[in-house]
Amino acid sequence: QVQLVESGGGLVQAGGSLRLSCAASGSIIRASSMGWYRQVAGDQRELVANVIKGGSIMYADAVKGRFTVSMDTAKITVYLQMNNLKPEDTAVYYCNAHIQRAGTWYDTDYWGQGTQVTVSS
């Protein structure tokens, strides 16, 4: 089994910062990519940022210049540093990872349980 455990969400005022962490555990050979999505009730889940092993990084236009994603491949952990937060960043943030489990030759998509980020104006 593979689990993704998130931490770091909470309530912050506009202009503030938060740092999310997501650690993968289990019988893992490698994580080929890890990243963050967010979802507002009633809307579709959307990509926030993603990092591919080897260094390729993608950001949603709405967070470019404010958010920074990083991945520690040794710890199989992904971080999201969120600065200059805005009320429109309020959402449930989900960790996502493409992971090769021990005993398999392919990647499987995994999701964390979600962590609430609320930005007050």
Q: Using only CA atoms, what is the Rg?
A: 14 Å
Structure class? mainly beta
The residue ranges in which pLDDT falls below 50 over 5 or more consecutive positions are none
**Topology order in helix (H) and strand (E) letters:** EEEEEEEEEEE
Q: Give the biggest sheet.
A: 7 strands, mixed
**How large is the count of helical segments?**
0
Number of strands: 11
**Percent range of helical residues:** under 10%
What does this structure look like?
- The protein is an all-beta fold and 121 residues long.
- 0% of the residues lie in helices and 63% in strands.
- It is built from no helices and 11 strands.
- The protein has strands at 2-7, 10-13, 18-26, 28-39, 46-52, 56-59, 67-72, 77-82, 91-101, 107-111, 115-120.
- Strands 2, 4, 5, 6, 9, 10 and 11 form a 7-stranded mixed β-sheet that branches. Strands 1-3-8-7 form a 4-stranded antiparallel β-sheet, with no helix packed on it.
- The radius of gyration is 14 Å and the shape is elongated.
- The chain starts with a strand and ends with a strand.
- The model has no long low-confidence stretch (mean pLDDT 96).
How are the elements arranged and paired?
Blueprint (H helix, E strand, L loop, with lengths): L1 E6 L2 E4 L4 E9 L1 E12 L6 E7 L3 E4 L7 E6 L4 E6 L8 E11 L5 E5 L3 E6 L1
Parallel strand pairs: 2-11
Antiparallel strand pairs: 1-3, 3-8, 4-5, 4-9, 5-6, 7-8, 9-10, 9-11
Structural features:
121 residues; elongated
